[in-house]
Amino acid sequence: MALFSSSFFSFFKKFMGGDKGVSYTQKTRVAPLSPHLQIYRLQITSALSILHRLSELIIYGGVVFFGCFVIFGLQIPSVFGYFLGFIQSWWGKAYVFLWIIGLTYNLLSGIRHMFWDMALGLSLRSIYHTSYGILFLTLSLGILVFWSFIKGWSPLMAIAG
Amino acid sequence: MDGRSVKFASFLRIAQGLGSSHSGTDHFIKHRFSFIWMMMLTFWLMIWLLPSLGAIFYGYSSSGKNMEDLYDLVRAFFRYPLNGIPLMMWLVASLYHGTLCLEVMIQDYIPHSLARALCRTLLYLFSQAIGWWVVFFVLKGLLQ
Nearest by CB to B54, which of A57, A110, A150? Predict the structure, then answer.
């Protein structure tokens, strides 16, 4: 298994900027990696910052999935069957739930960032308050959106009749 | 200051070199504008698109309709301009915004310049390919 040999891993680590086989002078030139999890205690602010990045990854994955559904699923009936099977399965629903939670969190956190850009809500007290508020709203709004997806109901549909 | 940043800078900023950020303001502004664009369409996605797709995927399929009926129904749903065009705009905005976000992550977590450049290029190519194909197929569906 040459693929999993130590030389392959050392090449990969070196390629990705790892420190194996790099001299001290070279090591000092390598850019430091954020968010420095090894030296800082996890707090609500840093936890939400990490969650924001994780949510971006989840959203991007879901957007690519949605894009592939439009490109392949809506053009080829047999591929549409695979997408339908995935969406109707429990792991498909679990992924959609995770994606909706990520999307809701990213949306609310992004709105808070816009306020921060206008220098509003930057005191430590308001940062803590809005952090807990965002967590509460993410869960409640996310569950509501997921429920409306599963049930196929929305207020707009009720208004339109 | 690179050429791309100049687009968002005022004449005073260009002439006197004012401002603490000498480059990278274009990325910040693109990030914020694409977020506003995506945010408005995400509300539409949450209150209209997802419930509608849920009604088709779970409601109609449990009412005894077969896969061909569902396929035609979903295609007809996206051929309607008020569904197809916002979907296309939301996907393009999300891909654009997501690419900007992932680009920052690549810069933060991949220190090696060659690997970083390779990942950024692959990310841009992948996002552009998905985006252009989505635009093509949605417009093709609308014009049929």
Answer: A150
Contact status, residue B55 vs residue B61, Cβ threshold 8 Å: no
Per residue in A78-103, pLDDT tens? Answer: 999 999 999 999 999 999 999 999 99
Please answer yes or no on whether A60 and B105 come within 8 Å at the CB atom: no
Residue B59 has pLDDT above 90, yes or no: no
Contacts of B67 in chain A (CB under 8 A): 77, 80-81, 84
> Rounded to whole angstroms, how far apart are CA atoms A70 and B16?
48
Half-sphere exposure in the Cβ direction for A146 (13 Å, CA): 20
Check B102 against A60: CB less than 8 A apart: yes
Residue A124 binned pLDDT confidence (cut-offs 50, 70, 90) = very high
pTM: 0.81
CA B110/CA B98 separation, integer angstroms: 17
3-class secondary-structure state, position A114: helix
- Residue B74: which of A74, A111, A149 has the nearest Cβ? A74
- Classify the C-alpha dihedral B138-B139-B140-B144 as positive or negative: positive
Nearest CA in chain B to A97: B50
- Cβ-based neighbour number of residue A14 at 10 Å: 15
In the numeric block, which tokens belong to residue B26?
Answer: 């274009």
Q: Report the residue from A77, A88, A152 with minimal CB separation from B55.
A: A152
Non-local (6+) Cβ contacts of A102 within 8 A are A54, A55, A58, A59, A62
**Tokens standing for residue B144:** 């049929």
Cβ neighbors of B35 (< 8 A, separation 6 or more) are A110, A113, A114, B97
Q: Enumerate residues 6+ apart whose C-beta is below 8 A from A63.
A: B91, B94, B95, B98
ipTM of the complex: 0.84
